[in-house]
Design brief:
By secondary structure, the protein is of the alpha+beta class. The chain has helices at residues 20-29, 64-67, 89-95, 107-113, 146-152, 169-182, 192-222, 299-306, 329-334, 343-352; strands at 2-3, 6-10, 35-45, 52-58, 61-62, 74-83, 134-143, 158-165, 187-188, 227-234, 236-243, 246-253, 255-257, 263-265, 273-278, 288-290, 323-326, 356-370.
């Protein structure tokens, strides 16, 4: 469908349930000035004003509100030196402590070596945060394309660490300042305001990547092992691109880039995670892939639906046999596996659309969210 000069696309099969409110948000966002393409990916679900699981291309201006308040939020994957055959779940789970406290590893020096200027949010560096953020120990369930996995460095007998987190309070502060000054309006390219936002946006993206690195470092230290980072991708960001011969700004709001190699796509804490290889990146998909399963229920709905059926203790074990460390009862219900769509359907939609092929499937072992 087309809204004046903006094409609206939805990458989803009839078997994939997409909430009507998310489609309405996608279409409404398509009417913003300068918008030329709005793509809803298979994990599309409602957000605050604009949907999550989408990519938007605008000509002549950029929209900080479409990037959102967690600039640089994304996911990283590390291969650990732990053995999947020698699993010590209780021992490992008990070692995962003090991860919610400030990191004492020398924050100023760490950031300086990565070219990141110090800021007021630096005390949060190395902490996971709330919402759908997590760190998860995983093992390979199956290798679909062994040669491609070997090239990436995956080893069947190893355990892997998947970290999903972002820029914590830094991205929130940047968006709040923009909204205070400009509301939800876009910023014309070439203006001082746009240049200022982009500079701070890039800083937050680098900070978010560094945050995932420190989280992984802390967890690996707790588990008394070492790890090698295999990939790191942002889900919330804006970049200048040429799309079908037109130069403009591609906004990803909960979307993985299809132009930076393999992509890790988690389901819920009770579902498999998929490692996929993007195929034929193009303007039709906004050069993007799904970034997860996508929510099926809102957080309040999730609590209301599940509190009568499950105790908090019930939700600390999943159907796949993994353990969940989450000592925030509300978060335990809000982020329950039942609150998310079927990741298998999301992945199949990407495959059927010719956007990706599955390289490997990983099974959750321990999911860490928060420990009081």
């Amino acid at each position: 469908m087309t809204h004046e000069t903006c094409e609206v696309r939805l990458v989803a099969s009839p078997s994939n349930w997409i909430e009507g409110a998310a489609v309405q948000q996608l279409e409404k966002t398509a009417t913003l000035p300068g918008m030329r393409l709005a793509v809803g990916l298979p994990d599309l679900h409602p957000g605050k004003g604009s949907p999550i699981g989408a990519a938007f291309f605008a000509e002549g201006c950029l929209y900080p509100a479409l990037v959102g308040n967690d600039i640089g939020c994304g996911i990283g994957l590390w291969q650990t030196a732990l053995s999947a055959r020698n699993r010590k779940l209780e021992t490992w789970a008990n070692r995962l402590r003090d991860l919610d406290r400030p990191w004492d590893g020398g924050i100023p020096q760490f950031l300086a070596t990565r070219g990141i200027a110090p800021g007021p949010q630096d005390h949060s560096l190395g902490t996971i945060g709330g919402g759908n953020h997590f760190a998860e120990l995983q093992q390979l369930e199956s290798l679909v394309h062994p040669a491609a996995c070997e090239e990436l460095g995956l080893q069947p007998g190893a355990l892997y660490l998947c970290v999903h987190s972002g820029s914590r309070g830094l991205g929130e502060a940047i968006l709040r300042e923009h909204v205070d000054q400009h509301g939800f309006a876009g910023l014309p390219e070439g203006t001082p305001e746009a240049a200022n936002y982009l500079a701070r946006h890039d800083q937050a993206r680098h900070w978010a990547s560094a945050n995932r690195e420190v989280i992984a470092t802390r967890i690996l230290e707790c588990l008394r092992t070492e790890g090698t980072r295999l990939l790191d991708l942002s889900h919330n960001w804006v970049q200048r691109v040429d799309l079908a011969g037109t130069s403009g700004w591609l906004h990803r709001k909960g979307a993985a880039p299809s132009t930076q190699g393999p992509v890790i796509i988690p389901g819920s804490r009770g579902a498999f995670t998929y490692l996929v290889r993007p195929l034929h990146p193009s303007a039709a998909s906004g050069y993007s892939l799904a970034h997860g399963a996508g929510r099926k229920w809102s957080r309040s709905d999730s609590r209301g639906r599940l509190e009568k059926r499950f105790t908090a203790k019930d939700l600390t074990r999943t159907e796949l046999g993994s353990q969940v460390i989450c000592e925030d009862k509300e978060l335990l219900y809000e982020e329950a596996p039942q609150a998310y769509k079927n990741i298998n359907v999301v992945i199949q939609d990407l495959v059927d659309a010719g956007l990706a092929e599955v390289l490997a499937i990983l099974r959750p072992v321990i999911t860490y969210k928060v420990r009081r």
